[in-house]
Amino acid sequence: MELKEYFEFLISDYTLRTISIGTAVLGAICGMLGSFAVLRKQSLLGDAISHAALPGIAIAFLIIESKNSVVFLIGALLSGLLGTFWIRGIVNKTHLKSDTALGLILSTFFGFGMLLLTYIQKIPNANQAGLESYLFGQAATLVESDVWLMSGVTGISFIILLLFWKELKILLFDPDFTKTIGFNTKFLDILITSFIVVAIVLGLQTVGVVLMSAMLLAPAAAARQWTNKLSTMVIVAAIFGALSGVIGTGISASSNNLSTGPIIVIVAAIFVLFSFVFSPGRGLLFREIRFRKNRRDLQLHKTLSFMYHIAKDHANISHPHAIKILNNFQGFTRKTLKQLEDKNYISLDGNMWQMTPTGYEKAATLYDQISKSDE
Amino acid sequence: MNSAQIEIQLIASLVAIACAIPGTFLVLRKMALITDAISHSILPGIVIGFFITHDLSSPLLILLATASGVLTVVLVEFIQKTGLVKEDTAIGLVFPALFSIGIILISKNASDVHLDIDAVLLGELAFAPFDRITVGTTDLGPKSLWIIGSILITTLLLLIAFFKELKVSTFDKGLAASLGFSPAIIHYGLMTVSSVTTVGAFDAVGAILVIALMIAPAATAYLLTQDLKKMLLLATLFGITGAILGYWSAHLLDASISGSITTVLGIVFLLVYLFAKNKGLISVLYRQKQQQKEVLLLTFLLHLHNHSDEEEERKVAHLNDHINWQKVKSRTVLSLALKNNMITIDNQIIALTDKGKTFTEEAINYIITNKDTEIEKMKDRFFLFRG
Q: Its family (chain B) (predicted)?
């Protein structure tokens, strides 16, 4: 399908439009709040919370015996929060480390949830069909009211984020300082954690319990590579999240048998991969290029200084020498000699080289400059 | 109990033991979450292996899945080394991506793959006894029993052979390296064993139960002991308990076996977490409260000691007015001091007894010489009743 055709279809088709907007909003809120999770080193908390939300959904179903997204959300929220605070209790009150606590809560809550789900499947009630869609998510089940709910929650969390921006920022980078200057760190901590839980719970219906953590992490991890500024990171992460939502929905809509959740995660993972490699400041590619350039400069300077030591023994500094005599110095090639000539440090004549006054001066002061620029 | 039931319980128990051994080391090495990553990311390996062999328990499939588990570990470590993101973010990025690839592979080829995503997460323990190995006409038992049995025996042999190395490198990496055990070999060895165990157990019990069986028994045991051998034994014991109790509660509820084993493991952890003798929540909270009261008592005695010649400062009512203690608080501190014969109250005026005086002076001595820990031992000597 052509891109243009797709966009026309997107605007005309109600279902596709709803789902696209839904996944975009979801991606945006996840990117926004995920930035905090990533920077607070709570990346895997998202994984634990999303798994821990499952029994909440199952219990909510057992209580009301019908499907209702809002009630499910509340159930998921409560059980997610319970999981979060239990993890915190384990880490604070025992010597078990956070990784053990996370893995423990994640697996036992999820197992309990699955127990309840299989139990629900056995009770004769026609309503239970579709509960499994919470495992891997089913974006196709999104309806307009879900999108409104998501947008509402995103709006509220955006406003709260703006209101407490300064406090959250300072908490992020220096919790001890925040405490000393009198902010209620416990409150701020609970605030941001609760919003992360809310974001996760919102995404359960779309991408599912298992893949939700990637939705939270990937846009933020990608955005982190492009900036060192929190506000930029949050915005870029939101954009990455929204884009992965829209593109993922598009790909899965244009092909059969592709569930939306995994595709969105793959798209987000591609964003991460791209950022890891190509971001100008931290990316692997530019890091390698910088590294090579530095090494080449160093080699060039070494060659120049080697020549300088030969030339300085002669009365005439521009006395020609055979290239041959450089042979016991490893680290020059025809190409590097040519580069030196381009810089007007030496001049080449057949198999001979001679230093120019500029080159001589440059070489004489080479190490002075380095030590000066170090200061 | 029929033979199928016995076989299921046997398989579940063997899986529990096979998971508890590497799990203990992972928990101690603070790498518990790598099991989460491995158990999810072996999926693409399993799916590709299944395309080739069309058999969930063929050795090639196990090999491929193990390779994709080890690949996860390598990828995670590579991302960590670039320093672009933190360690836990690296884990959180790698496994959902690989898991998604697995799911897409399954759903793309749904028509020729009889792999159910539910089965991937939950396993099909209930069906394990139906897939049997037969040689000629003799029935050798369920296939998964053989697979997990051989994994368990290998794990046990490796554990016995390398126990010393594992122990040293777990608790002191630097020492292990200087003694000449390569930490890298032990690390990747442990990762490979974990991957193999995960893959072997996966078929029977599914991805989530593998995580639970690795982490929960080890974490529970860690709350009860600080001795590695005891911890291994306890973890195994908890694993088996979970497996058998879980099986019967699933039988009762007619629900997923692996879900209910996980739940039992969670409940066992909760009980130990609350009631463990020294590390449990209740005893920790109790001890904190006791400490608090005893610190208050010490402060109070110091106050009395400072003002031993000013009656005004030693009135009972003064506690409320000047030290700003609430009524209840001052009453508990007073009664604790009285019970321990540290003070006498005469006409609403408090005076230190001889015992109280010696106690306070010794305490001051320890505080000014910065040996605060000695006060704990002193408390044992002086106190008749603890706070």
A: Belongs to the ABC-3 integral membrane protein family.
